[in-house]
Amino acid sequence: MQDNPQAQSGALYIVATPIGNLEDITLRSLRILREVDLIAAEDTRHTRKLLSACSIATRLISLHEHNEKKKSAFLIGQLASGLNVAYVSDAGTPGISDPGQSLVEAAHAAGIRVVPVPGPCAAVAALGVSGFSSDSFLFYGFLPAKPAAKERELANLKACRQTLIFYEAPGRFADTLTRMKQTLGDREIVVGREMTKVHEEIRRARISEFLENRILGAEKGEFVIVVRAEEAPKCVATDEDIEEALKRLFAAEDCSVRDAADQVSRQTGASRKRVYSVAVKLRT
């Protein structure tokens, strides 16, 4: 069933908007923005350009990181009175490293229906063209600006075995890559700059190559950095280590060979087949 703001009272629509190229706006997003009673925007000046280009005249108010809590209370009142409201950030999906979270939380608390209107997201777009594993990934967003805090956060992520995705602002790109190399190692990364815009660049190389060869044409614009997951270290557990772990497990609880192999495999990093073989010998 299609949603219809005219027939659904008091709904909050979280609408994704283009991250650059206006052609990326969806037909559904355009319809919702035309039909709601009110659009709340991170920057009304920015959103007005989009609405003008799409011939949309819906009333606009601002809701950004500095007034979000105050304006959220106002918007919840409007929603409770039966008005339909759309929220848009400057680009991409609201709430993803953008304002919107407080408004959505307040809507849920008030029993207001919150409707996603999906579309562009820079993190997902960059991951999709990276060629890195997307089975499991961690989106961090913007790292802290202060060097010590940035290094601390990167150190916390060093052991992460997932593809990592960061946003970075102009002026901090080189420093961030330098600290990534020092902390995470010289990993392969994909960097998207000005994605979907006229001067879009997407490059893939090791961190050191970006730093040494200035691969990107310019260090201006907004960046998405996708970091390849580091492979898990090879298991160094010996058969004696596995045997000792199995003996402790069998002594502590009554479990099957299969369950024991599963548990010890996770503990030691050894393959389940290898652990199972040792467990069978212990049980015979």
Radius of gyration equals 25 Å
Tell me the major beta sheet.
Answer: 5 strands, parallel
Number of strands: 10
CATH fold-type name of the largest domain:
Cobalt-precorrin-4 Transmethylase, domain 1
Provide the CATH top-level class of the largest domain: Alpha Beta
CATH superfamily of the largest domain, by name, is Tetrapyrrole methylase, N-terminal domain
Strand order of the largest sheet: 3-2-4-1-5
Q: What is the end-to-end distance?
A: 61 Å
Mean pLDDT: 90
Count of separate structural domains: 3
Low-confidence parts lasting 5 or more residues at pLDDT below 50? none
Structural class: alpha/beta
Q: What's this entry about, in short?
A:
With 284 residues, this protein is of the alpha/beta class. The chain contains 11 helices and 10 strands.
Q: Mind sketching the topology for me?
A:
Blueprint: E1 11-15, H1 27-35, E2 38-41, H2 44-53, E3 60-62, H3 68-80, E4 85-88, H4 101-109, E5 113-117, H5 122-130, E6 137-142, H6 147-157, E7 163-168, H7 173-184, E8 188-193, E9 201-206, H8 207-213, E10 223-227, H9 239-252, H10 257-268, H11 272-283
Parallel strand pairs: 1-4, 1-5, 2-3, 2-4, 6-7
Antiparallel strand pairs: 7-10, 8-9, 8-10
Helix pairs in contact: 3-4, 6-7, 7-8, 9-10, 9-11, 10-11
Question: How would you describe the overall organization of this protein?
Answer:
The chain contains eleven helices and ten strands. The model has no long low-confidence stretch (mean pLDDT 90). It is globular. It is of the alpha/beta class.
Features:
3 domains; 42% helix; globular; five-stranded mixed beta sheet; Cobalt-precorrin-4 Transmethylase, domain 1; five-stranded parallel beta sheet; 10 strands; Methyltransferase, Cobalt-precorrin-4 Transmethylase, Domain 2; single chain; 11 helices; 284 residues; alpha/beta
